[in-house]
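step: validate -> pass
step: tokenize input -> pass
step: predict -> running
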Amino acid sequence: LDVFRHKRSILQSQNFETVVYPELVKEGFLYATITEHRYYSIGSWERINLTTQFFAGPKTIFLDRDGTINVRPPKACYVEKEEEFVWLFRAKEAIKLLKESGYRVIVISNQPGIARGRLTEQVLQKIHQKMQTELRQETGYEIDAIYYCPHNWEEGCECRKPRPGMLYQAQKEYSLNLTACVLIGDDERDIEAGEAAGCKCIQVSEQYDLFHAVSDLLAGKSS
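step: predict -> pass
step: emit ->
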């Protein structure tokens, strides 16, 4: 009995993972993998609330900016002034449809013009303020969040599409289940970033614009 009590006291004083996990590894019952996705446990009331939000939060859609909601500038050029931001036909209406359907709308955009000295982050903020103002005036809604990568092509950052860094940042800040999110963009890099994060992806073009993509999504027609 004394031996049993001694062993029990040892186990109680040790961390469960320290005692049990090595034995499971030895038997081949435990494996590990590295993931960029946020994971959730329910070891506390706070974590229970976060996990609930993870599974039951608002539907979320990610939108590329240039070429998806506004006119894409010529190659190697950027939207450098407020007046150069021009909405694509029915793009505001598409966002209105999403908001009315209960979606959280997040924009993710590469903005290498900042690193190249073509515009400042302050100017970019003014461009986005114009975008939000025009959207609000016409639809009564705003985009919920805007993420942008200010780095140049060769800087090797994690946020520049086709890398999914901006998606992971939004995931952490909004407790998102990225596998339940949708990304819409016009460039292969958008799609690669979305797929890397586990999102459902829809590519738009001049022939298949944002309004048609959103209409099909809401009607359950998109694959």
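step: describe -> The first helix runs from residue 2 to 13.
step: cleanup -> pass
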